[in-house]
Design brief:
Blueprint (H helix, E strand, L loop, with lengths): L22 E2 L27 H6 L15 E2 L1
Antiparallel strand pairs: 1-2
Length: 75
């Protein structure tokens, strides 16, 4: 059995622009670049249409204990 620790979003975290494309890993409410992407629907987009910071961080562990290749969904 696997138990996942709850993730917290820091107060004051900047909400992502809904017209931008971001990636997330273990926490689906926070993009790799650190923006709040709560309630943002998943989308398909080309690599060049992704936030450049998220694109640069993709493939890296988002935190200690990250499952790596099991994460990395697109938003």
């Amino acid at each position: 059995m696997t138990v996942l620790a709850p993730f917290l979003i820091a107060e004051g975290r900047t909400k992502a622009d809904p017209d931008e494309n971001h990636l997330y890993c273990c926490n689906e409410n926070v993009s790799l670049c650190g923006l709040d992407i709560t309630d943002t629907g998943e989308q398909d987009f080309d690599d060049e249409d992704c936030c450049p910071i998220c694109r640069d961080l993709s493939g890296l562990p988002c935190r200690p204990g990250c499952r790596g290749s099991e994460g990395g969904e697109v938003l």
